[in-house]
From TrEMBL:
It comes from the Eukaryota. This is DUF4817 domain-containing protein. Residues 60-83 are annotated as: Disordered.
Length: 137
């Protein structure tokens, strides 16, 4: 497990809600210490501060409904897929290549995307006058 993976192990919605509520009631520093000792892994202070602010914002939103805040789902991260449904097809194809033991690099990814788009939407690629451009950027 990489260092980035270790840093994300506390971010299930229920664990986040526990940190958020504890930080709102007891402060972010105390929440960091408490959950770092409880879960035997480091919870950075900026993370606890961010969770606390998310919790307080959600509390304001749900004040009208009267329901307690039990969990706050994580937000979608990164750029949205530009090819929508084709994006998942390309991802599944690349994953099948990896599972077959084939080395996947940028050139293979771009070629796979171009091939799938040519097969499904032949006139959409920029090389034939369409609006979809396949490239590193």
């Amino acid at each position: 497990m990489s260092q980035n993976d270790e840093g994300r192990t506390y971010s299930t919605p229920n664990e986040r809600a526990r940190i958020e509520k504890y930080a709102a009631e007891n402060g972010k520093t105390r929440a960091c210490r408490h959950f770092s000792q409880l879960w035997k892994r480091n919870i950075p202070e900026p993370t606890a501060r961010h969770f606390k602010n998310e919790y307080l914002d959600e509390l304001k939103r749900q004040r009208n409904t009267g329901k307690p805040v039990e969990s706050i789902p994580t937000k979608q991260k990164g750029r949205p897929p530009s090819l929508s449904r084709l994006d998942t097809v390309i991802q599944e194809f690349i994953e099948s290549l990896r599972l077959a033991g084939i080395l996947v690099n940028t050139a293979i990814t771009l070629a796979a995307a171009e091939g799938i788009i040519k097969a499904r939407l032949p006139g959409k690629l920029q090389s034939v006058g369409g609006d979809i451009r396949i490239g590193k950027d």
